[in-house]
């Protein structure tokens, strides 16, 4: 089973792009609070990149802005890349559903 769930705030206004084959895509950075307090008594945040495709991307770009709170469910894909002759894999978070919280 390959699932993730995130709740957080969109860090920057999403921009809708289009692939060379006409498929709509958007990348967002989601600001997600860590579930524990740091040693100085404050919460820290992770900034997680999420890819959105087709209708999900179009809808999000039409209704969301920086500061919009969302709940995202999706899957993790691995994208290969080569560095110094070695093959590596980079995890990519791909949204499959988005719910708008605020």
How does this structure look, described?
The chain is mainly beta and 102 residues long. It is built from 1 helix and 6 strands, in the order ββββαββ. It has one helix spanning 54-63; strands at residues 4-10, 17-18, 24-37, 43-53, 69-83, 86-100. A hairpin with a 5-residue loop joins β3 and β4. It starts with a strand and ends with a strand.
The CATH superfamily name is Nucleic acid-binding proteins
Give, in spatial order, the strands making up the sheet with the most strands.
1-3-4-6-5
Q: Please tell me the CATH architecture by its name.
A: Beta Barrel
> Which fold name corresponds to the CATH topology?
OB fold (Dihydrolipoamide Acetyltransferase, E2P)
Main beta sheet: strand number and arrangement? 5 strands, mixed, barrel
- Low-pLDDT residue intervals, each spanning 5 or more residues: none
Into which percent range does the helicity of residues fall?
under 10%
Indicate the overall shape: globular
- In whole angstroms, the N-to-C terminal distance is 30 Å
CATH class: Mainly Beta
The computed structural class is mainly beta
The share of residues in extended strands comes to: over 45%
Total DSSP E strands: 6
**Count of helical segments?**
1
Overall radius of gyration: 15 Å
Give average pLDDT, whole number: 96
Number of domains: 1
Task: Map the helices and strands.
Layout: E1 4-10, E2 17-18, E3 24-37, E4 43-53, H1 54-63, E5 69-83, E6 86-100
Parallel strand pairs: 4-6
Antiparallel strand pairs: 1-3, 1-5, 2-3, 3-4, 5-6
């Amino acid at each position: 089973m390959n699932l993730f769930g995130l709740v957080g705030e969109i860090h920057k206004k999403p921009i809708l792009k289009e692939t060379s084959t006409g498929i709509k895509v958007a990348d967002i950075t989601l600001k997600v609070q860590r579930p524990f307090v740091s040693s100085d008594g404050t919460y820290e945040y992770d900034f997680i990149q999420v890819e959105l495709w087709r209708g999900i991307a179009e809808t999000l770009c039409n209704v969301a802005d920086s500061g919009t709170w969302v709940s995202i469910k999706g899957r993790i894909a691995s994208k290969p890349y080569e560095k110094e002759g070695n093959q590596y894999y980079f995890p990519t978070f791909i949204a499959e559903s988005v719910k708008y919280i605020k």
